[in-house]
Amino acid sequence: MTSKRFGFTLIEILIAMSILGIMAALITGNYLITQKRARDARRKSDLHNIQNGLEQYYANCNFAYPTPLANNTFSSLTCLSPSLALMPTVPVDPLTISPYPCTSCSDSQYQLCSTLEVETPQTYCLTNAQ
């Protein structure tokens, strides 16, 4: 007499669950690294955008770079003479939501830096083009 088998055995269920668990662990690990790389790319793009805004400020506003705020950051890039809003809001770091610091800033030079999460070297800096 043949018996019909309905369902799965405990071993089959455990093997399927372990395979799914391994796949989930691999996908989660890759997803986190991908997020970090995306934030690094965003930081580089932000610094290039700020650099472009600073160079436009320099060219349009009496050949001098803007003075940063007391904490060595920029909240906006606005020229008073002539009246131009070159960058009404300056981008911020995507993880910490804090402004990018400007080191060695004066009316003739600047250096913008950010710390990267995945890439090496970990510090990415841009300086003035003039």
From TrEMBL:
Gene Ontology terms describing biological process: protein secretion by the type II secretion system
GO cellular component: membrane; type II protein secretion system complex
Membrane spanning stretches: 6-33
Principal location listed in the UniProt entry: membrane
Keyword Zinc: no
SUPFAM superfamilies: Pili subunits (SSF54523)
Highest taxon in the source lineage: Bacteria
Protein name in UniProt: Type II secretion system protein GspG C-terminal domain-containing protein
Database matches in Gene3D superfamilies: Glycoprotein, Type 4 Pilin
Keywords from the UniProt entry: Membrane, Methylation, Transmembrane, Transmembrane helix
UniProt xrefs under InterPro entries: Bac_GSPG_pilin, N_methyl_site, Pilin-like
Subcellular location: Membrane
Annotated membrane topology: Single-pass membrane protein
